[in-house]
Write a structure and sequence with these properties.
By secondary structure, the chain is α+β, with helices and mostly antiparallel strands. The chain folds into two domains: about 90 residues; about 230 residues, BirA Bifunctional Protein, domain 2 (2-Layer Sandwich), CATH 3.30.930. It contains twelve helices and ten strands. The strands form two sheets. Strands 1-5-6-10-9-8-7 form a seven-stranded mixed beta sheet, with helices on both faces. Helix 1 packs parallel to helix 4. The structure holds phenylalanine. The site of phenylalanine has 11 residues, from strand 9 and strand 10.
Length: about 350
Amino acid sequence: MSQQAFEKANQLQAEIEAANPASIEELEQFRIKYLGSKGMLRGLFGEIKTVDNDRKREFGQLINAIKESSETKFRSLLDGLEAKADTGKGDLDLSAPGEPFPIGSRHPVSILMNRIVEIFERIGFVVAEDREIEDDWHNFTAMNTPADHPARDMQDTFYLMNDPAMLLRTHTSSVQSRVMTSQKPPIRIIAPGRVYRNETISARSHCQFHQVEGLYVDENVSFADMKQTLYYFARELYGDTKIRLRPSYFPFTEPSAEMDVYWGLKDEIDHKITKGTGWLEVLGCGMVDPEVLENCGIDSKKYTGFAFGMGIDRQAMLKYRISDIRYLFENDVRFLKQFSSAI
Ligand code: PHE
């Protein structure tokens, strides 16, 4: 009697080992046939009563081993088949339309800043970027603005609380001193970046804004070179226009000037923007003060240079007809996505 039960068990074990279900459906058939509540393994357990008492223990161990190995086989087959299903193999539809995904848009300030940089790159200027947390020397002292200089009042500075020798740069002119102390002429850089001034936030002004700085130092650089460079720039950015230079004052340039671009007086808005003059104030510029060159270790008898700096945010507001500067810093996607077609 016992012999028959053992043979049945061995046969079933061989059968289970040989089985090779190749799909989830076939595996389910496998499970029902061998492991299910009415399956063949269950049937084997029913055979125990036919086994002689002295071999019952041996038989029990055998069918338990078969049960365990069958369950292990089932689980590993299931894992394999599910993993295969996850890769989508077999049901990949190559003709299905792609999933659209939203593309971001450039910030209007970045758009304008990139355009300005690109205009200067075309005539040999190289981008220079530097830190926003700057020391007093690079922002002011090197730029001919020592501690007691009245011009410091023009720029309300954020000093660092734990180190008053450190500040948030008030202009990108700090990049001038950074570059001049680390490079030898000829120097031709264009420096875009963010600057900070302790100003009351309103529709017209903010405590953070953006500038683009330019610096050209070489032998025989003249005021005429500056004028021509800036004229080229104004026409590239504003189209067929005129410029004018008005005398001005900056501690780090001598002589200094402010450049206006002719905007026109076609409608009431133009009158408002240009305060009725038709001219738009665009940038500050001048010949690098020899004192600044010397502060930075450049021989002012051999080299001369010009520099200019302009604010970006107001120009961006004019270009894109943005009425309030605060929109530029709020990161509201309803505002930002309006610029998605611009580059
Ligand atoms: N740094 C000046 C400003 O912030 C602009 C400027 C730069 C003027 C370079 C002259 C030369 O107003």
